[in-house]
Design a protein that fits this description.
This is Pyocin activator protein PrtN. By secondary structure, the chain is α+β, with helices and mostly antiparallel strands. The chain has 4 helices and 5 strands; from the N terminus they run ββαβααββα. The protein is globular. The protein starts with 6 loop residues before the first strand and ends with a helix.
Amino acid sequence: MNATPSQARTPEGRGETTLQLLRQRYRCNYITVEQLLQDHLPSITSLDSLNKAISRGHLQLRIDRLYDSRKAPRIVYLHHLADFLDQAEKTAATAAA
């Protein structure tokens, strides 16, 4: 997904990209899957449900592991999340038009 980043207006009038806003919010380059579900996908209640939605093509989102181990936490890099959110916004705008 190479979507053009959306511009959000801050109270000061500056335009910031979705990725910049996510980095300001989380102060890290990634979030855990638990944070993703809580903050952005509250209708999906478990990792299994998320994996099913991704594998069925309902969500175009990449899930990684923090490091190479089966016990490593599952994460979403903010640049992938920003692409996903920007694409969701485009899709919603197209459907509303």
